[in-house]
Design a protein that fits this description.
Ribosomal Protein S8, Chain: A, domain 1; elongated; four-stranded antiparallel β-sheet; 346 residues; seven-stranded mixed β-sheet; alpha/beta; 12 helices; 40% helix
């Protein structure tokens, strides 16, 4: 029901299940207030009914957000305030999007039993690409879920016995500072570089379970250099921080893939830590391999960031200021538009 006045539109919506409506509106109506602030409308809550006032387009968007979130709740998905923020971003970007297709696409489960699902249109396309293609490159800024979603999907597929093992690897490159001599044996020397992969792994399964899988070799975490000379069959392989691989390392890694395996390569080409004058293997691979059928390239922007909202603003500010490492042979290809919506190439 809606009625048009000279300056604003008024729309109302009622939700059949009173308890779900309370969850939808949030504690002390915090979800309704978040939508009100973000979409620039006025929202009044009474029982299981909302009244929305504002500009015609804004009212239509706000009502759609409430309705889409309610449908997700009906399917048993627990909506948190962060999900409301994601819903606002998704439907603001594409009003015809269906939240059920994203929030109900279970990629994995965290230790605290919370379900891991795509939180943006770009993430949904990325997850679908990993399922469909044997080699997927994901390029974009930090916080867009490139590695986390790949690991969640890999762990899920391992548990379903669709792959015999998961291999997590990344180049052992210092991030802009010299760490000097690291004490200990070889494992202790390379472990600091691989710590982020362990952290993400332990977020998805309890420590003891993860250690058992690591000890049995069903999950392996290793520096990229350790991949040389191997053939990786029946494996789900993730190369993280691929922008710090050299041309030779990238070629070596890609040619390790054996039968029944899948590889996901992630990286941010604005954060290259290789020595000046060294070509990033990720940038070169994009130029060389983008035309091969069966290889998919997925691109993320700040719109796909799922960390603290300020992270999106920080990434955008750096992009606008040009304060990214884009000099020499490591520069971004001219046709790459970092501010665009996720794009795909076959």
């Amino acid at each position: 029901m809606s009625e048009q006045t000279e300056e604003l539109t008024v729309a109302r919506a009622s939700f059949e299940d009173y308890e779900l409506a309370k969850i939808l509106f949030g504690k002390h109506d915090e979800n309704a207030k978040l939508i009100e602030r973000s979409v620039d409308v006025r929202v009044s809550v009474r029982g299981n009914t909302i009244t929305i006032q504002g500009g015609a387009l804004e009212v239509k968007l706000a009502k759609r957000i409430f309705q889409e979130l309610y449908e997700v709740l009906e399917k048993g998905y627990p909506v948190y305030p962060a999900d409301v923020d994601y819903a606002i971003r998704i439907l603001s970007e594409k009003s015809s999007a269906k939240l059920k297709e994203l929030f109900l696409d279970k990629v994995g489960i965290k230790v605290n039993k919370r379900v891991i699902t795509p939180k943006s249109l770009g993430q949904k396309e990325y997850v679908d690409a990993i399922r469909r293609f044997d080699i997927v490159f994901s390029i974009g800024p930090a916080g867009t879920g490139k590695t986390y979603l790949a690991m969640a999907l890999g762990v899920s597929l391992l548990m379903k016995k669709e792959f015999g093992r998961i291999i997590l690897t990344r180049p052992a490159v210092e991030a802009g500072e010299k760490l000097g001599f690291l004490p200990g044996d070889l494992y202790e020397k390379v472990n600091p570089y691989l710590r982020p992969l362990y952290d993400a792994l332990h977020d998805m399964m309890d420590f003891d379970h993860a250690m058992r899988l690591l000890q049995r070799g069903e999950i392996e975490v290793a520096p990229l250099a350790f991949m040389r000379g191997r053939t990786l069959n029946d494996s789900f392989v993730i190369l993280d921080e691929a922008q710090n691989s050299t041309s030779e390392q990238m070629k070596m890694f890609l040619t390790r893939l054996g039968y029944g395996s899948k590889a996901v390569i992630t990286g941010d080409i604005t954060q290259v830590d290789l020595p000046d004058g060294t070509l990033s293997g990720l940038i070169e691979a994009r130029a060389i391999l983008s035309g091969i059928t069966g290889i998919r390239f997925c691109y993320f922007s700040e719109k796909d960031v799922v960390r603290h909202p300020l992270v999106r603003d920080i990434i955008k500010a750096y992009d606008l200021s040009g304060q990214t490492k884009n000099h020499g042979p490591r520069s971004l290809p001219k046709e790459f538009n970092h501010d665009s919506q996720l794009q795909t190439k076959q």
